[in-house]
């Protein structure tokens, strides 16, 4: 195992508890689009039902999945308009009620003080949203301009589980995959990092108790080396990975 010198954090529900907040806004917008396009939804989406189905995908990915399922027309122009609108809706929600994941701030503070690792954010979400999230909870000081977004940093934009955003981050940071460790809470994110050759810690803290065991299996199958339930476990797991135990 090469020496790890870079930590790559997913943003949504890894650094900040944003999925529920964001999916509420998403659900409202998707229901509006469904009405406009006469899509016969079995029942309107809620934030919760959307999370179950699309956790880890960005809005562009969700719309493409829905388009495939229901076969409705969507021009590139319409897609871009909806993607921009979703960003606005979600950022407004984030600025109103976002909070950090439990115990992550202490970990970030210690890592920054230690100065041994470069810290970066690698997300599927739009750059504007990721920056609004980490700024809202005061985490932006740890990452500087090392914030990468599959929806914004890539041309053409993509979404995890495509490894493109991790490969882009490696290139921009001038790092090899074995020098990095990713922290991810979703199947698509874990697959994205693992496919880029990066070791992954799967984080299940924000999942409801009844979902957590299932997600532990899902993330392990997607390639996570270790499953972490609480950020308090992170430094111990990092040390174990560096020793070659995982």
UniProtKB/TrEMBL annotation:
Pfam families in UniProt: Hydrolase
Database matches in InterPro entries: CbbY-like (IPR044999), HAD-like_sf (IPR036412), HAD-SF_hydro_IA (IPR006439), HAD_sf (IPR023214), PGP-like_dom2 (IPR023198)
Gene Ontology MF term list: phosphatase activity
Entry-linked PANTHER family: CBBY-LIKE PROTEIN, XYLULOSE-1,5-BISPHOSPHATE (XUBP) PHOSPHATASE
Protein name listed in UniProt: HAD-like protein
Species assigned in the record: Neurospora tetrasperma (strain FGSC 2508 / ATCC MYA-4615 / P0657)
